[in-house]
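Predict the 3D structure for this chain.
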Amino acid sequence: MASDVPSKADGTAFSAFGVGPLSEGRTEPDPPGVGLYIHVPWCLRKCPYCDFNSHALRGELDEARYLQALLEDLDHDLENAPDRLVETVFIGGGTPSLLTGETVAALLAGIRQRVALAADAEITLEANPGAVDAVHFLDYRRAGVNRLSIGVQSFDAAQLQRLGRIHDPRQAMEAFGAARSAGFDNINLDLMFGLPEQTVAQALADLEQALALAPEHLSWYQLTLEPNTLFHARPPALPEEELLWEIQEAGLARLAEGGYRRYEISAFSLEGRRCRHNLNYWTFGDYLGIGAGAHGKITVEGGVVRYWKERHPERYMERPGVGGVHRVGKAELPLEFLMNALRLVEGVEEALFCRRTRLTLQALEPALSRLRARGLMEAGRLRATSRGYDFLNDLLLEFEHDG
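Done. Predicted structure below.
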């Protein structure tokens, strides 16, 4: 990605590059709250479809050293977001459930010492069934984690093997039960469809098992072949487009029947259980990002800044806070905003675009008028119609071309 701001080579604050914290000229009376993303980059084994910044763990995990690096990293980031209320925390990976409850408790305690954490903050931790046990879940809950996201992916033993997962269906269901026993009343399950040689019946069987557990939230998404993954280099036999469409249509109907409302492309929840942390992303809110390979976005006096941290865990721990910075140009802002906001089934109000980008709606013309005339976007709101939602990537290209 091109950048007109130097790399954060010495771990200093963004203000050193002339992009100070949100202050004069803001269009909102008070800076809105921010999210905090924390990346844990290790897994027991790298899955063949995964393109996230994850590394197979070799030897013992030095939790104390990584914890210290995370808190030093946060100290750097807070120079750009003074007095911003942190409303959500998301500990993702990798496999965060490799961390002990003691480390997670120390991490959350260190965060509370440094930021104003909302009393009702949503605090999520990702867990894999093959890397956790009931003792960990209890400790996470006692530490203050109040939302668990469990990476099940499938309840089919053969598919789990194809996906390189280290758990079996029994362990997946036991992990969910352990989470409930630990007191978690807000649980997400990650589930894939479009798996190698998967039939409609098999995909729906996976979905039925997930619904039987009655999680508060489901992330149900299609397996895709991402660059720099083993599956991309050696593609498995995936279902044809027509079959994928049939799976999706049947699955959407079953989820709706089960009381799960689709509010984003691959996110479904019971009433009042949407993921607040991800909603902040999709509404172009600000968030801090700490940990190896983490990304963040902050609104500053000069506009919007995106930044990222060193990806390699060892180099990250040697110099926490090192990474890169990119000031988002005015010409980029419309597409950046819409790539997030139009993922939402309900879209967003037009005024939010103006508040978050400091641009007028004129910045979206003439693409917006063209798309509304073609029935792909609604009038009076930044929202794709049902037809436009089915072809969202093509719709977004209209704004890229105008930019």
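The chain has two domains: 14-281, 330-403.
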